[in-house]
Amino acid sequence: MLGGGILKGMAVTARNFVGSYFIQERMTTIQYPEERAPLPENYRNFPFLVFDGDDAHAGLRCVACQICEKECPPQCIYIVKSKDKKPDFVGKPQLYPATFDIDISVCMSCQICVEVCPFDAIKMDKVFELSRRERFDALLMQKAELAKSNEYYHQIHPTEATDVDAGLAAAAAAAAAKKKAVASPAPPTPPSNPNPA
Ligand code: SF4
Ligand code: SF4
Asked: Where exactly are the structural domains of the chain?
């Protein structure tokens, strides 16, 4: 029929238009900020620093190796190493960042810092409401603001955080076994008898 395609198209449009008022799955508009659409688990925005336990300083995983600072394409990470050391997650004394800043007005959310970190110390956050009134330095996030607990990491990326915990637990167990082997080496094996009876 002449014009049949147009009528079909208009029927689809009308169905979707009416459906957008009454069918839940088609209601794409929500009353933000009172209502919030759930973010997918792999959503990412800007990086944050993970700490274990309750103490953001003692539990901070970052050892200030500066790999992320060197690899960040727009160079928006700034780290100053500490003068002293504190134990890392296996109890080994390590440096920590005395200063760790990220200029999120420059960060492009590429996640390269996360990929290159050998200590699972930096991960991608989901917070996106970061507008500030002040312009100067307002978007320079500092260590105190960047540090977030491992529990928080589990809340926003549960699958990834569980995998990371398993990897860290395996690394800690391997380090403990190595330490034990060094502390009490196995007795030497007696030479075998060259002239057995
Ligand atoms: S996400 Fe990318 S741009 Fe942002 S701090 Fe990490 S490496 Fe730099
Ligand atoms: S976040 Fe990771 S890569 Fe960056 S300085 Fe800390 S330990 Fe090194």
From this structure: 47-172
- For ligand 2, atom 3, name the residue with the nearest CA: 117
Q: How far apart are CA 63 and CA 68, in angstroms?
A: 11
Name the CATH architecture for the domain at 47-172: 2-Layer Sandwich (3.30)
Nearest ligand to the CA atom of 77: 1
Q: Is the pTM of this model over 0.85?
A: no
Binning pLDDT at 50, 70 and 90, where does residue 195 land? low
Question: For residue 25, which amino acid is it?
Answer: E
* Ligand 1 neighbour 47 (Cβ under 6 A): yes
User: What integer pLDDT is reported at residue 163 of this predicted model?
Assistant: 97
Nearest-atom index, ligand 2, CA of 69: 4
The whole-number average pLDDT for the span 153-180 is 93
What torsion, rounded to 10 degrees, do the Cα atoms 177, 178, 183, 188 define? 100
